[in-house]
Automatic annotation (TrEMBL):
It comes from Flavobacterium kingsejongi. Coiled coil: none annotated. PANTHER family: ERAD-ASSOCIATED E3 UBIQUITIN-PROTEIN LIGASE COMPONENT HRD3, SEL-1-LIKE PROTEIN. Transmembrane segments: none annotated. This is Sel1 repeat family protein. SMART domains: SEL1.
Length: 824
């Protein structure tokens, strides 16, 4: 419709029939005013009546209240096109300006019109100007509204101090009401019921609706849904406010997922929007967004979001931006960025942060880290917790700030985010107090922040508090640590899931391992694609931990974990190919997996790769082997130190640098790892002064840890009385233990002692059996076995067999055998 023509036509009709505005005003009912033409007729009459003031002042004022202050003006204008809306806005403002000198309260309404108008008509400066005009006339509502706007920074620059001064300037109804809203926002609920009672006693017929809305909001905040629903229904029945319609629609939408409830909710939201509650259009748009589909599928959502955007709704602008930036069927970067910038202008924190992240990453738009930093700073200045935390990270790490890392400034920003219960800020503040620069470390404060994080359901804080109970920062309590890990694990936090599995597997917290439960947690983490839990699940299948051993499953989980970059899984796959577990032997694949793990700096991968090169699994390259073993040793892996010590002691490359071995063996020993190397060094004076007492000590220490060669040397010391008093029984014990582990020299000595009955009851059959085993490769055993056959000691005398063994010994360099056989 052409509003200008319609308005003029109505005016001319009234003038033609000489209708008196004052007489006509009371005849227009609310139902008539809810229709656009009826409302427009009312505006014409109000305009005429305003020119005749102060005649019929009370009648005019009452009609003004009915026509303008109950959102019927919005209902009449909501779907107007741009041309008609321009006429509507200019005309209603002209009428209000005519009324204001006679009714100063109208200045407050003019301020509201500027605040609630469409884009290009909304005017923050005019809003403030007309609130101030009303305040100059001591209009209580204007005083309260401006105080509230200042407190929360609505259209005006935030100034909580001045806002509170205005709100506390009197105990007028409106001041108490808006103080009540602030108290609810700050979580102060106990005093609200008494305040509601006070407000009801103070309210007049016009303001009573506001008390009922406040009461319903209180029920909402306290999550008394039944009371809130009843209150909103009462308001809707008596006053038909947009907000009560909106909340009823939202409650209806949440209580059931059936189509009838959804349709009823949509109807209520539309009515709410038409009565001035823009969130009604926002919900209509949001809940009609398709997950995917052709562009046509987006039309209903876009229709409502654009209407909300038309009325300056930042959320709607942001949603439209997301549609045009990311919905594949709707991509329009220029349009998307337009809406994003509009959302930022309308104070959308999410839009501001989105653009900052886009500039930081160079996503969809040209990367501009400096501008991203500016936007994050702007958001932090508005005390947006995510931005405070992000800026904290920038100062923490010294990126984009143009200065060195500044943990003090970072901590202040983290704490500012934490004050708003932002989990990231809580976590990071606790982290700095726990791990930061020494002058900032404060374990008590770290504990306090992590406990706040636990209360805020932040898994990181749960884990850090658990670790503090493990490492004696707090009183060691593995049950508390487990409970915290378990709490984080139930939130699907992979690190915690792995920790729970480890606790259950080992029973750290209750000395009662539960392998089946451990496996189930590892598998849960694996299903969340966590590489560490995939590795643990593979390990369980590999070794039958809490589940039946299954090579195929073990290999499958190890492979997933390795592909995700887990070096421990790479090592396990390498070992599987080396030892033919679940796969065929493949030296090249074993090398390949160890190389991958080593390249990631994993010490065991470095050790195994060095071992492979040292001993020639695929190719022998002792220098490469030494290089990788050194890396593992530098990382503190003691077995790499032993391997390097062996390289020098046994002089693999003939470089005659055996004295270097002692240092490596000693470093391993200091890490509580020892084999025969230390004993050899002390026995033969390699890198240290010879000392058989010390040699025996280290041999026996290594023997006690099941090192077979050390068992042999310990037996030899007892046999020969070197470094310890001779003791044939102890000698036999150590030789026999080593012999059972296929040590040739020990088989020889144990067999010889059994043959002689020395240190053990004579048993020629077992003694000969051990000599026979050793004689397969060991020259002294071959020579002694020849003597047994020559002399008929435990076997039938047989010179031919004796000569055979003498010749074998001679070929292996046994001096007496060479003299006996004449071989060189």
């Amino acid at each position: 419709m052409n509003l200008n023509k319609t308005y003029t036509s109505i005016l001319q009709g009234l003038q033609q029939f000489e209708v008196t505005a004052a007489q006509e005003l009371p005849t227009l009912t609310r139902e008539q005013l809810k229709e656009r033409t009826g409302w427009l007729r009312g505006l014409v009459l109000l305009d005429l009546a305003a020119t005749q003031l102060p005649e019929n002042k009370e009648t005019v004022y009452d009609f003004y209240l009915k026509l303008i202050t109950e959102n019927l003006d919005f209902k009449a204008s909501v779907y107007l096109d741009d041309e008609d809306y321009d006429f509507y806005f200019r005309t209603i403002m002209e009428v209000l300006h005519k009324l204001a000198p006679h009714f100063p309260e109208v200045y407050t309404q003019i301020a509201f019109q500027y605040r609630e108008a469409r884009r290009n008509y909304r005017d923050a400066e005019k809003t403030a100007e007309y609130l101030d005009k009303a305040i100059a006339h001591n209009i209580p509502m204007a005083i309260a509204v401006k105080g509230y706007f200042l407190y929360y920074g609505i259209l005006l620059e935030e100034d909580q101090k001045t806002g509170l001064e205005l709100l506390n300037s009197s105990d007028h109804f409106w001041n108490q009401l808006y103080r009540g809203y602030i108290a609810l926002g700050d979580g102060e609920r106990d005093s609200i019921p008494a305040l509601i009672a006070t407000l009801k006693s103070l309210a007049d017929a016009q303001s009573y609706k506001s008390v009922l809305l406040f009461e319903a909001h209180y029920y909402d905040v306290t999550e008394d849904l039944a009371a809130a629903t009843a209150a909103y229904k009462k308001i809707t029945d008596e006053y038909e406010t947009g907000y009560s319609l909106f909340r009823l629609g939202t409650i209806k939408f949440a209580e059931s997922g059936d189509e009838a409830s959804r349709a009823e909710a949509f109807s209520l939201w539309q009515q709410a929007f038409e009565m001035g509650t823009i969130d009604g259009a926002v919900h209509l748009g949001y809940h009609q967004l398709p997950e995917s589909g052709e562009a046509k599928a987006f039309e209903p959502a876009i229709h409502w979001l654009q209407l909300a955007y038309l009325y300056n709704n930042a959320y709607a602008a942001h949603r439209l931006a997301l549609i045009y930036l990311y919905a594949p069927e709707m991509i329009d970067i220029e349009k998307g960025m337009h809406y994003l910038d509009e959302a930022i202008l309308n104070e959308s924190a999410d839009a501001l942060l989105d653009k900052a992240e886009m500039l930081l990453e160079g996503a969809l738009i040209t990367q501009d880290e400096a501008q991203a930093f500016v936007l994050f700073q702007k958001a932090a200045d508005k005390k947006i917790p995510y931005a405070l935390n992000r800026m904290g990270y920038f100062y923490d790490s010294g990126i984009f700030t143009g200065e060195a890392p500044n943990p003090v400034k970072a901590l202040a920003l983290y704490e500012a985010a934490a004050e708003q219960n932002f989990p990231g800020g809580i976590n990071n503040a606790g982290r700095i107090y726990r791990y930061g620069d020494p002058e900032l470390q404060d374990m008590k404060k770290a504990q306090e922040f992590f406990e706040r994080g636990v209360a805020a359901n932040a898994p990181y804080s749960m884990i850090e508090l658990a670790i503090m109970h493990e490492d004696d920062t707090l009183e060691r309590d593995y049950q508390k640590a487990f409970d915290l890990y378990h709490q984080a694990a139930t939130l699907d936090y992979p690190y915690a899931i792995q920790a729970v599995g480890n606790y259950l597997e080992n029973g750290f917290h209750n000395q009662n391992p539960d392998l089946e439960a451990a496996f189930e947690w590892f598998k849960k983490g694996a299903e969340l694609e966590d590489a560490n839990c995939q590795y643990e699940t593979g390990r369980c299948y590999r070794y039958g931990v809490g589940v039946a051993e299954n090579p195929d499953e073990a290999i499958a989980y190890y492979t997933k974990s390795a592909e995700a970059g887990n070096p421990k899984a790479m090592v396990e796959l390498g070992l599987c190919h080396e030892y033919e577990y679940g796969v065929a032997f493949d030296a090249h694949k074993a090398m390949e997996y160890m190389q991958q793990a080593a390249d990631l700096g994993y010490y065991f991968g470095e050790y195994k790769l060095g071992y492979y090169y040292m001993h020639g699994l695929v190719e022998q390259d002792t220098q490469k082997g030494l290089e990788w073993l050194e890396k593992a040793a530098t990382a503190g892996y003691p077995y790499a130190m032993l391997e390097i010590g062996d390289y020098y002691v046994y002089d693999y490359d003939g470089i005659d640098q055996s004295e270097k071995a002692f240092d490596y063996y000693q470093r391993a020993y200091e890490l509580d790892v020892i084999h025969q190397g230390m004993g050899l060094c002390y026995e033969y004076g390699i890198g240290v002064e010879a000392n058989m007492g010390e040699a025996f000590k280290y041999y026996q220490m290594a023997a006690d840890r099941d090192y077979v060669i050390a068992m042999y040397h310990t037996g030899r010391c007892y046999l020969e009385g070197e470094g310890v008093k001779a003791n044939d029984a102890e000698a036999f014990r150590w030789f026999y233990d080593a012999a059972q582990r296929n040590n040739l020299a020990s088989q020889y000595y144990a067999g010889s002692l059994l043959l002689k009955g020395k240190g053990v009851a004579m048993n020629k059959e077992e003694g000969l059996d051990l000599l026979q085993k050793a004689a397969e490769e060991y020259a002294p055993a071959q020579f002694d076995l020849g003597n047994c056959y020559l002399m008929g000691d435990g076997v039938e005398e047989d010179e031919d067999t004796a000569m055979y063994w003498f010749e074998q010994a001679a070929e292996n360099g046994h001096e007496k055998a060479m003299k006996l056989t004449g071989k060189k």
